[in-house]
Amino acid sequence: AAFHDLTVKTIVFLNPDTPLYKFIHHDFQRLIDVCSHITIYADHRDKALWYSEFFNRDENMRQIPTVGRRPFDLLYPTDASDVSMTRTRTIHAPNQVQRRNSSSPLDLDVIEVSWMDHNMHRMRHSYFDINRLMVADLCELFTTCNRADTRTALLHRHTNVFSFLNAPRHI
Hints:
There is one protein chain. The protein is of the alpha/beta class. The chain has three helices and five strands, in the order βαβαβαββ. It has helices at 20-34, 47-55, 132-144, and strands spanning 11-14, 38-42, 109-112, 154-158, 161-164. Strands 1-2-3-5-4 form a five-stranded mixed beta sheet, with no helix packed on it. The N and C termini lie far apart (54 Å).
């Protein structure tokens, strides 16, 4: 069966453990061909994905960055020589989030949850069913099929990246 006849209403990834380079250069195009509404929840503090990056290395023993830990790196490559997604960079933006040099975000919604600390365990990986904000946003996403810029509890951060509109625990 050909995938060009397949149409999916929405696709949601929760802290995906897939290589960033492969997702941007191969997987994203296949997904966007069958679905125009893709949402990724990402957390650069996810310890389970950190272990995955640490133990799963390329042939030169470099860590392979994952989509779930790179919420600000889901951008089109600037050119064919863009290798920033295949190695760990030493330059960090505020909050130690890596940002690549590109002005073209992928046509998807990224919900950055790195700052969340309500109903969150130490591994920060599989809390989606117990966090009230996550459950409410997923319910709104599935019932209304709205993009992130029109959902009620989200705040625009940068290009295609959004966060939950909620005060941190210490406030």
